[in-house]
Amino acid sequence: MPTIVVDVMPKAELLDPAGKAVAGSLARQGKAHISGVRIGKRFEITVDEVNEAVLAEVREIAESMLSNSVIEDVIDVRVAEDHPAANAGEAHAEASVSR
Amino acid sequence: MRVGVVTFPGSLDERDAQRAVRLAGAEPVELWHSDHDLQGVDAIVLPGGFSYGDYLRCGAIAAHSPIMREVVDAANSGMPVLGICNGFQVLVEAHLLPGGLIRNDHGQFVRRDQQLRVENTSTAWTSGFEQGQEITIPLKNGEGGFIADAETLARIEGEGLVTFRYVGLNPNGSLNDIAGLTNERGNVVGLMPHPEHAVEAGFGPDTSTRMRSGVDGLTFFTSVVEQALARA
Known about the structure:
heterodimer; A: 99 residues; alpha+beta; Mth169, Chain: A; three-stranded antiparallel β-sheet; 3 helices; B: 232 residues; alpha/beta; Rossmann fold; 6 helices; 25% strand
């Protein structure tokens, strides 16, 4: 079954207390060269088949349900790498809506 | 007057909200998240808790539950709707109130008796307060930081939609100390602190005169009842 991956991140200008806590722990473990961590979400959406209509629908779901535009950005909507449609070259570029 | 209290999977404070409605002289009506029936109620409370375990985002899944279609329609027709804590999060996720709520800036859950200033007394749920009145009701949340983009924040402030502001201490990093909001029409109110936990002497916050005697939260519920009586 093909999988569509959606990446959502908290808006860059917002404080991310969870990411800050992880960065603080890393610093305490001596990883002083790591200057920041931000935590987002990855959704793996299984569909019967991938086509433009399905991708458009997932993009709509990503904006309306999977993310809240007040506090988050949809970073990417793409077909999972191991799916043939993702390896067809252009398909991946078409599928992505990077911002 | 009949006031509906919606229970979602993971709601915690619906019984306290029902009790507050009863103490204010109205009849509480239990509403269920998966129904499409408001049972003819005159006002609605979305209670606190952790609907759907706060999965996805606090309030996000509840905002898409069946009964919310009727709640949104009723709110847009002017029915009084009060969202408390998780209920406030549901209201912003349902776009009935502007802005969003994120994890407390210090990263910790906070529980305290919280002082607030009433900034807007022309809403369905605050008409019994004096403008600028300071009240104390319990606060308990992990994700109560109110945010909005600069343009939205300017509009909220310009239109007087800020209904409650934290006083003394901002417990979660909310912008402009915003604790609660109303919509343009004044029928929808959402706030992070819990008025339904301060409605009966013996169970509320401490006051200068006696322990646990604070009942400042009761005015939310008597406000909506008195306005209904005035219209009748």
